[in-house]
Amino acid sequence: MVIDLRSDTFTLPSPEMLEVILTAKLGDDVWREDPTVIELEALAAKKLGKEAGLLVTSGTQGNLVSIMTHLNRGDGIVLEAECHTYLFEAGGFTSVVGAYPFLVKGNNGVMDPKDVEEILTRPYNEHCVQPKLLCIENTHNTGGGAVIPKENIDTLAKIAHENNVAVHIDGARIFNAAIASGTPASSLVENADSVQMCLSKGLGCPVGSVIVGTEEFIHRARKNRKIVGGSMRQAGIIAAPGIYALNNMIDRLAEDHLHAKLITDELKAKVPNIKIKPVETNLIVIDLSETPWTAQEIQDRFEDKGIKMASMGKYLLRMVTYFGISKEDIDTIVATIPEIFQ
C-alpha cells in the first residue's frame, strides 16, 4: 500500500460523493439548464458572500477566466513573486490575456502593503504599463500553506480599490485558510472582487472549481469561459459532489491540519538542522539545505517505504495531508522518520 503525500489533488471521492453523482439531476449547462450546476454555483456564492458563481474545470482555468474578465490586453497584474498563478499556470495571464506582471516578494506569501502601494500609486506615464488587478493567493502554496491574514487582505484591497485596481483571490484552498484562522471564508474574501475556489483539493471532489463575484462579473466571465473551451454540457455530474463537499467536507479540514502538525513535530524532534516553513494548514515544506541529504535522496528513501512526496528543488520537499490520509497512515509516516534520516 502506498501513502501518497505529493498533493491534496490525489483525494478520491467518498462513497457519498459517488452516490450523489449517480442520482444527480442533469441538463445542458451551456443552455443554463443543469439544475445541479445552478445549485452548486448559488451555494458557492453564498458560502463566499458573493452574488453569483460559475463552475469551471480547474483552479487554473478559474484564475485565467477571472483575469480575462478583469483585464484588457496590455494591462498590468500585481502578483506575489512565488504565487501559483505566476509559477505554475503556464503563463496563461501573459499568453492568453496579454497582461504584464508586477511581482512583489512576500514573506511566505504575505505581501507588504507598502510594496503593493508603491506599484499602484506610480504617476501615470504613457510609456508604462498601468496595473489594473491585484491577485492574492490564500492559502499560499509555496509559502508552506500559509494563511494570508484577513487584516492583510483588507489593507491590500483598500489600497487597490483607492487606485481603481480590482482584487482577485486565488482561493484554491480558501476553506483551509478559514478553518485554520477561525475566520469565515466569506469574511476573508469580503473585500475581493472575485474569488476562485477549488473543489478538487482538500474538499475531495474528483474535478472542478468555482469562480464567484458580482452578477455582472460572472455574466462576463461566462463568455470568457466559453473562449477557453470551458463550457460543459451535463456538468451536474461534477457539480453534485461539489454540493456535497461544501455541505459536509469543510469542517473536517481541521483533521488534515492536525495530521500535518504531527508529521512536522516528529521531523523537528528527530532530524537535526532541518528547516520547515511554519505549518498552519495541510502543507509541509521541508528545507534540507543544512542537512547531509538532498531532496532526491530523502524522497527515494521514503518511496522505498511506500511513502510518496514531491520534490520542489535540490533541497526542498513537500508533503500534503488530505482526505484519505488516515491517522494510521500518519502513524506509519511518523514511525518511519527515524530510520529515513540516519
Account of the 3D structure:
With 342 residues, the protein is of the alpha/beta class. It folds into two domains: 13-248, Type I PLP-dependent aspartate aminotransferase-like (Major domain) (Aspartate Aminotransferase, domain 2, 3-Layer(aba) Sandwich), CATH 3.40.640; 252-340, Aspartate Aminotransferase, domain 1 (Alpha-Beta Complex). It is built from 14 helices and 13 strands. A hairpin with a 4-residue loop joins strand 12 (310-311) and strand 13. The radius of gyration is 20 Å and the shape is globular. It starts with a strand and ends with a helix. The relative contact order is 0.18. The model has no long low-confidence stretch (mean pLDDT 97).
Distance between the termini: 24 Å
Helix content: 40-55%
- The CATH topology of the largest domain comes to Aspartate Aminotransferase, domain 2
Q: Going across the major beta sheet, what is the strand order?
A: 2-8-7-6-5-3-4
Shape: globular
**DSSP strand (E) fraction?**
15-25%
Structural category is: alpha/beta
> What is the count of distinct domains?
2
The CATH architecture of the largest domain is 3-Layer(aba) Sandwich
CATH class annotation of the largest domain: Alpha Beta
Topology, number of strands: 13
Assign the CATH superfamily of the largest domain. Answer: Type I PLP-dependent aspartate aminotransferase-like (Major domain)
Could you give the order of the helices and strands? EHHEHEHHEHEHEHHEEHHHEEHEEEH
